[in-house]
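Notes, Module 5: Reading structure tokens.

Key idea: the token line is not a picture. It is a compressed description, and you learn to read it the same way you learned to read a sequence, by spotting repeated patterns. We will look at two proteins. The first is printed below with its tokens.
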Amino acid sequence: MCHVIVTCRSMLWTLLSIVAAFGELIAFMSTDWLVGYPRTPDAVFGSHGATAAGEAYRPTLGIYGRCIKLPQMQRGILCGPYAFRFGEIASGFWQATSIFLAAGILLLCAVAFISIFTMCFQSIMKKSIFNVCGLLQGIAGLFLILGLMLYPAGWGSDKVQVYCGLDAAPYRAGLCSMGWAFYTAMGGTVLTFICAVFSAQAEIATSSDKVQEEIEEGKSLICLL
């Protein structure tokens, strides 16, 4: 018989796991990792900013995408990938970042999917599903940390210098500032480790004595605080 077990701690862990996975996925796909210095569409790029007069805007650069305003566009900013193949990503460090982030996000999405079914299934191959998911989240967190540590090492690439000026160098953003996607990725990484630790509390909540008493009474739907 399938016993549906719902506790506050298990539901909170499920919710946080989903938030962490989607947060990292959205950050990875975003172009707002670096925010370039203000310039106009027809500006001349230099180490001290744009030299042409007019309405300024700030382009953004992601791991594989960018947002720019072209001279022929009267309104709006064009966003899309600048790299259509893996080898076209700005630097080898960003290629490594892509691999580590993608691996971490894949694990997080798998855990988020599995967490939805933990109300009905609390074990897999005689192992606690919460412990298994917590381990996967810990591994995903390590992948994410490696990716975020390697990301600033790619700031010295030619692509970044176009957006951030000639002063841009590894671990020095030059005239650029960090965009919301970078901070979202950092927050998602912290939340991933919180979920990994909190999975133990979800396991304790779903295997407590109160839950066992409810099962022995023949209840199939068990809701506990």
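Here is the second protein, with the sequence above and the tokens below, as before.
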Amino acid sequence: MSRPSASLLLLLSAATLVATCRGDPEPVQDFCVAAPLGVEGKVSLAFPGLPCKPASTVVSDDFFFAAQARAASTDNPNGAGVTPGNVEAFPGLNTLGLSLNRVDLAPGGVNPLHTHPRSAELVHVEAGEMLVGFVSTDGKFYSKVVQEGESFVIPRGMMHFQYNVGAGAARAMTVFNSQLPGVVLAAQSVFGAQPEIPDAVLAKSFQVDAEIIKLLKSKFRKG
């Protein structure tokens, strides 16, 4: 039996690398509208996505989403409101590998530091102006004041934010190359984790007194 050539082995290795690095798997049918949630309101997000509705029950409205036509409330400490358009809110996205959020910011409002572990993000500002920035793995801060009609891309997994630097309200649409990009809020995850991260660990990590950690935890404690 002949041995595979070096070029063939290289091609197979590259194909394997691409297959393992992409955000969401490729669909194997025209569409797979997510089936309604179970009796407890939750389903297991098993690979590669949610279960499909029977094709015979799919209708045009399954591919339509109107929730982002209205602004989200910004009446909160961050002055920010996010209307998600992921597969949990828009079942027609199931297996298609994309999703879309609407971000509304009051003057001075911020969509606070967070990451999306499963997706890159394209921020397109539709109204107002936002300072958009992220921090790379080597600690370098990249940012830009993005104005109406302009865009800024955030690589997958990078810690980032959007901050309204204008005099009026600002609005952006954020596009993801995953049907469910996930979100990890930096401050909430660190200071609001349940069970709590020990004060000593956080005090040592942030090089501050434990009393400061207790104060920060009180800001993010639920209930």
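Summary for the second protein:
- The chain has four helices and ten strands.
- Residues 6-21 form the longest helix (16 residues).
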